[in-house]
UniProtKB/TrEMBL annotation:
Organism taxonomic ancestry: Bacteria, Bacillati, Bacillota, Bacilli, Bacillales
SMART domains tied to this protein: CoA_trans
Transmembrane segment boundaries: none
Name of the protein: 3-oxoacid CoA-transferase subunit B
Xref: NCBIfam families: pcaJ_scoB_fam (TIGR02428)
Length: 228
């Protein structure tokens, strides 16, 4: 289990019984494998399915059963299928309780950029704008830094925006933040990291929650903390 799986596991803890949830591309698709057993969560995929289950083993996958990331999925009892028009109507009409989505950058006021890097090929925004604006709660699940060590949590986004001020919860391998009144609030941090180290890799300004606490990351998810 690597860092990405830890982020997905932690993001899954934010889902509640009865939620209709859309999972974005990248780390968020892993959330399907970590939903607590005692919670009934209905996963929706924008390519037209409600009732997505965990990732099937290779010998049980069906090439006709995929999510929006084109990855194999299983289906739960009672799963339903529909066209993209109805899927986007669900998203735009406020019928999705939560979306778990990745990010290239998140600002300290809850802005998010997750679809284009200047100077690189752009495939298009897809359903990201619809999901972020339409979902009742937006959960960002992303690594704290880029692969080359650059911060993703910044004072203001420098990449093309997907939406302004829409992020509610931000989960990384090191911390969990919540956004309230355009403020970024630290509520949880892994105990293998100090606050000084967290500030060092987080240019975005954040406040400490009154209920802030440190947690021990399960050993299976532990990875070296790379702070320069």
């Amino acid at each position: 289990m690597d860092t990405r799986h830890y982020i997905a596991w932690r993001a899954a803890q934010e889902l509640e019984d009865g939620d209709i949830v859309n999972l974005g591309i990248g780390v968020p698709v892993l959330v399907a494998d970590y939903i607590p057993e005692n919670r009934q969560v209905f996963l929706q995929s924008e390519n037209g399915i409600l009732g997505v289950g965990p990732t099937p083993p290779p010998d049980k996958s069906d090439p006709d059963l995929i999510n929006a990331s084109k990855l194999p999925i299983s289906e739960l009892v009672g799963a339903s299928y529909f066209d993209s028009a109805l899927s986007f109507a669900m998203m735009r009409g406020g019928h999705v309780d939560k979306t778990v989505i990745g990010a290239l950058q998140v600002s300290e006021t809850g802005d998010i950029a997750n679809w284009a890097v200047p100077g690189k090929d752009v495939l298009g925004v897809g359903g990201a704008m619809d999901l972020i604006v339409g979902a009742k709660t937006v959960i960002v699940a992303t690594t704290h830094l880029t692969p080359d060590g650059k911060p993703k949590l910044v004072p203001s986004c420098t990449y093309p925006l997907t939406a302004k001020g829409e992020v509610d919860i931000l989960v990384t391998e090191y911390a969990v933040f919540r956004f309230q009144d355009s403020k970024m609030i630290l509520v949880e941090m892994v105990d293998e990291l100090s606050l000084d180290q967290l500030h060092e890799i987080t240019p975005a300004r954040f406040e400490l929650s009154k209920n802030f606490y440190a947690v021990s990351r399960p050993e299976v998810y532990s990875s070296p903390i790379k702070v320069t």
